[in-house]
């Protein structure tokens, strides 16, 4: 295994310490519950937005804690749900009189932890709601999921509910917005290589030298099928066909288009994918109104990418355009 | 080769098209000269800032064109300098009455192209200056360089001169600031794997399963030595020793700390490196005043990282804090 790692047991804790040290004014790291929270959270005048999930998907979710995004993220270990009592403690730390929205990507382990954490918080009188994200069109059920998986499209739910909460929306309204965005968001991914979890030290699965996993999950779980690798444009055509047919997205629609890198793919390749997707959508009469190219939800060092579409209306467009500050930034 | 690529000959052009399509209001792509420029450039009230270099280092430099950063980038093919006439045409397109600053990372091929492009522009009456960046402490001369190489620390020069130009500084003043930032910036990198240029289709060099290249160049050219891989913290110690001893950086200094990913390394690992570097600097009495973690100057899909320090004073700190907008962004 060739990684920048010390003891793999400390992988997540050391990463979180790094995130906190790099953002001393805006973020707080709470080692006892493995969480990163905004230094100014909870605020009495806004709903707190919290997301948990396994680690290994960075920048999701610990690096999108900040103004207009998440108030806190409570990650589990690599590819493992957070313990339910960490979810509970996070909800307590983030308790606002306006309530707490718990975002969960749809994996069975995460849902269990969050359902139980929410019940424990409610027993303490904390008002909390859960919103489940399930944007992945690849498979109906999966290795770790009843129903569809939640993947990179999750970013748009975070951005929209984060903006709404910042603008003072109450819990019911934030929940309505989150559901609305999730309902018009669809994603499909493809892996060129497997990923290597630090604690395992070897690739999680095997892919032949000319094979790709079409519809791959963000933990390397199988998608729709193994295929022979094709030219970039042909791969985009396949991803677009899976995504656009699902909602469906139609001529006249205005969309946000995201090309998300899975961790080991350089951004130059992501823009090559973006180019063809943008043009193919234009040919179908679908206008790209907002574009997102980079890493949003990764799978450790996996080479690969996912394509996400969000159908925009005035309300969603406005929320996606609102100011936001993440730990991940360029300037 | 497992990459998202069509015909490798079109790799750069397709990437540039993607960048332009994703930023239709702010950027313009000029295929004839392989350049990306701000849609509002040149502006009569500011010095134009231009950088060229080989491609394959994205986001450097085509994705850091924008307000407060570059006015244009004219990349060559992958790991190849731009042709001199493209530099000349770029200088003409960006000609402002206040002049043009041409930034060059120190590689012999790039310097030749820019020296000649500048001469051709001056013959047309365009006022231009060249600023050479050479922040890499790894080797004194290298495969492609007389003198030290220019690598990720280049970002800080761009950010500072971009801010100064935006604030109305004249060409002499912008040049003074760029030289000043370059003089207090030092970088050292390490590769865990080789990179694969699309046109070659196989790794550019071989590294054993337990080997790293300490002091690697961003084209995969050799650094100081091959070593056995170590724990992340020990690698940071070695990078810090090389960097801090060079200026040197001393107790009482306030610095910007960048951990730059080389393309194939996930951001989680970069924060593990950041954590130890930040703490080690604190132990030496050196305060990290500004932090930068992510990809700034890559080497295609190479797994690896570099560490950069910039000694801050009030002027540099102010310029690095100025507003800026890059094509690469999260929200």
Automatic annotation (TrEMBL), chains A, B:
The keyword Transferase applies. Transmembrane segments: none annotated. The keyword Nucleotide-binding applies. PROSITE patterns: DHAK. GO terms for molecular function: ATP binding; glycerone kinase activity. InterPro entries: DhaK_1, DhaK_dom, Dihydroxyacetone_Kinase. It comes from Actinoplanes nipponensis. This is Dihydroxyacetone kinase subunit DhaK. GO terms for cellular component: cytosol. GO terms for biological process: glycerol catabolic process. Keywords: ATP-binding, Kinase, Nucleotide-binding, Transferase. Pfam families: Dak1. Residues 7-330 form the DhaK domain.
